[in-house]
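User: tokens in, sequence out, please.
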């Protein structure tokens, strides 16, 4: 069974006002100086790291095979980030954008400083929090074959994760305004079919050689090969409000990778839908999330979200069953669609009193709901 892991970017918000607070440096200094015992005997504490702005922290799970263990790691990471900032009057929230106005503070790091100098408002203003799913691959050849065959399904992942309807004090009209904000970066988005490792490497090299981006770390594709570990990294998703939804996404992504690798070995050719069509599909997923129509992942024509999800389950059902994740994903999709995902839950919180502060407060509660439950998270 393939390993998978999740990186989550969490927004740091004032526990009283809900406004983002630039406290990541203090939190990480405290983390470096304490003796956090971790999750259990022999287990390391969840990894927490800086990101481009001081109003956010990144958490990282271990490479795992069990969805139950993955959920436990995600919850532990959220709780660890929250423990580090609570002494500062701050909470860690799984919000993909701040509902309230914010002027971000860049992290004091040479690379980030160069990005601020070079890219102006795109770097200074892009305070967004995503969810990155890593899935293990046997080789870079397999990884490129996987990228070629999962690309048409990625807008569905975005629709399921959409968790940023509010930004700068207003409802944006989108389910994932983070997606639009993030795609101000020059190298973000979908790709054409590569066909080989050589073509993938040439693609990355051409982008870096333009001099427009700093380095390979700024090849911000919706999915890419990791330069740090033997994984495919799917980067299209918003951070999920509900930790269970992040696990559902990870299980779907792993099954997509499994299915794509099997198709490659069987000689099944990838879809020839152009990247321009996939950009439109991503835009539509960002606009309506699970509450509207979406270009069909297999033929690209307009379809209902129900049809798109039915196609997804038909496509990856065998892999989900082999991994023991089929029931988890079916139940998770039903839950996400019923609530409208994070975007729907945020708008429901706002509808009560018309208060964005209430939206942030409800998001903090939802972020840490499973930490308070006392349930055994290793068993789903």
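Assistant: Sequence out:
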């Amino acid at each position: 069974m393939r390993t998978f892991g999740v990186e989550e970017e969490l927004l740091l918000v004032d526990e009283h006002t809900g406004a983002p607070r630039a406290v990541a440096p203090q939190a990480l200094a405290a983390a470096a100086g304490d003796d956090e015992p971790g999750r259990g005997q022999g287990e390391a504490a969840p990894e927490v790291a800086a990101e481009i702005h001081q109003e956010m922290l990144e958490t990282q799970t271990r490479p795992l095979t069990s969805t139950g263990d993955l959920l436990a790691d995600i919850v532990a990471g959220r709780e660890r980030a929250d423990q580090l900032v609570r002494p500062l009057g701050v909470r860690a929230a799984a919000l993909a954008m701040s509902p309230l106005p914010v002027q971000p503070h860049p992290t004091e790091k040479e690379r980030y400083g160069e990005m601020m100098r070079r890219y102006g408002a795109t770097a200074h203003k892009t305070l967004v929090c995503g969810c990155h799913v890593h899935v293990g691959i046997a080789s870079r050849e397999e990884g490129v074959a996987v990228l070629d065959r999962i690309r048409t399904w990625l807008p569905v992942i975005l629709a399921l994760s959409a968790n940023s309807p509010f930004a700068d004090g207003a409802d944006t009209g989108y389910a994932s305004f983070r997606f639009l904000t993030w795609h101000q970066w020059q190298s973000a988005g979908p790709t054409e079919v590569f066909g080989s490792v050589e073509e993938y490497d040439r693609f990355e090299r051409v982008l870096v050689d333009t001099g427009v981006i700093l380095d390979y770390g700024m090849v911000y594709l919706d999915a890419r090969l990791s330069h740090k570990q033997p994984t495919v990294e799917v980067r299209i998703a918003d951070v999920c409000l509900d930790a269970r939804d992040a696990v559902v996404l990870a299980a779907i992504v792993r099954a997509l990778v499994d299915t794509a690798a099997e198709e490659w070995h069987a000689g099944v050719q990838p879809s020839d839908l152009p990247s321009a069509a996939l950009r439109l599909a991503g835009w539509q997923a960002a606009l309506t999330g699970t509450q509207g129509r979406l270009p069909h992942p297999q033929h690209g024509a307009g379809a209902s979200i129900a049809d798109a999800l039915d196609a997804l389950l038909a496509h990856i059902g065998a892999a989900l069953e082999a991994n023991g994740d089929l029931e988890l994903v079916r139940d998770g999709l039903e839950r996400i669609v019923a609530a409208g995902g994070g975007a729907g839950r945020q708008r429901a919180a706002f509808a009560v009193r018309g208060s964005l502060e209430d939206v942030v407060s409800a998001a903090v509660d939802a972020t840490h709901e499973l930490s308070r439950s006392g349930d055994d998270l290793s068993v789903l």
